Structures are given as structure tokens and as C-alpha cells.
Amino acid sequence: IWWGVSALVSLFSSMFTPSTEVKTIECAPGTVVVEAFIGDGAKRQSDFDLQTNPELWFTVTNTGKVSCTFNAGPKAQIYTIRFGQEVIWTNEQCDRTGLKDATITLSPGKPEKAKPSPWLKVYSTPDGCGKGQAAAFPGIYSFSVKVNNVESKNAETFTLQ
């Protein structure tokens, strides 16, 4: 009898024990793909007039088979704009004070889009990267991004008129 009661108590108590959450692991090297985009913030665009500031953004995609965590916060994002091989603007030269890491969970195969940021069409220097910097001239440029040391698989080409 004692064994039967003990088994029933054990059965019922296990039914009401909260389940333990599965801890998500950090994304393994090579399982995250970063893709750079330039446009109006919603869709790609490759030509910009003098009045329009291009919006820069990226997606991160987990190419693995299980969900994993990845730091995609502003502190881990490096945007670069080139004219040919010359870097003319990078947010590494912006004031990065206060930027934070932000770990997100990436489901397999589901791209996560970063919030678009405007480029003011200026050069960056050790003194800054925004208003007050020399204006970029008309021409063909490319945009790439590195997130948490993962380089974008592409460089978006675009034209300033």
C-alpha cells in the first residue's frame, strides 16, 4: 500500500512541477549571416538625389538548425561606406558613448531586421561622422556592415546624384 501511495503522490506532483526552460545557446561561428541594405528604410534603393538621405540597415539570419543568441546591439554594429576602396564614412568615428550590446535570439532561417539609420551623406573623421562634416560628392558608393565581428555577405552599391 505504501508503495502505491508513494507512486501516486510522485505521479501527481510531477504533473504540477513547472517545466524547466531550455537555455538557448550562443550562435556558433559560421551560423549567422549578415546582409547589408540601403534604401528608404522599407525597401532597397540604389539612386539618391541631393535632398534624400539614404537609410542603412541589415538583417541577421541564423543558418543553423536550432535557435541561438547573438549580440546585434548598436555597440556591436560597424557600418562602412566606401568610394572605390577608400573608406569615406564609418560609424566607428561617431560618438559611440552609451552604445550597448543587445543579445537577441535568432530562430533558424528567420531573418531579423535592424532599425534603419540615416546616412547624412558626409565624410567621417576622428572628429565625428555627422553634421558639420564635409559633404560626400556625387558618385558610386558601397555600403557594408559588420555585426558582432560577422561581415555582411554583400556590399550594397548605390549612386549619389
Overview of the molecule:
The protein has 161 residues and is mainly beta. It is built from one helix and 13 strands, in the order αβββββββββββββ. The chain has one helix spanning 2-15; strands at 25-26, 32-39, 47-48, 55-62, 68-71, 77-83, 86-90, 103-106, 112-113, 117-118, 139-147, 150-151, 156-160. Strands 3, 6, 7, 11, 12 and 13 form a six-stranded mixed β-sheet that branches. Strands 2, 4, 9 and 10 form a four-stranded antiparallel β-sheet that branches. Strand 6 (77-83) and strand 7 form a beta hairpin. Mean pLDDT is 90; it is low at 1-19.
Summarize this entry quickly:
By secondary structure, the protein is mainly β. It has one helix at 2-15; strands spanning 25-26, 32-39, 47-48, 55-62, 68-71, 77-83, 86-90, 103-106, 112-113, 117-118, 139-147, 150-151, 156-160.
Top keywords for this entry?
six-stranded mixed sheet, about 160 residues, single chain, four-stranded antiparallel sheet, mainly beta
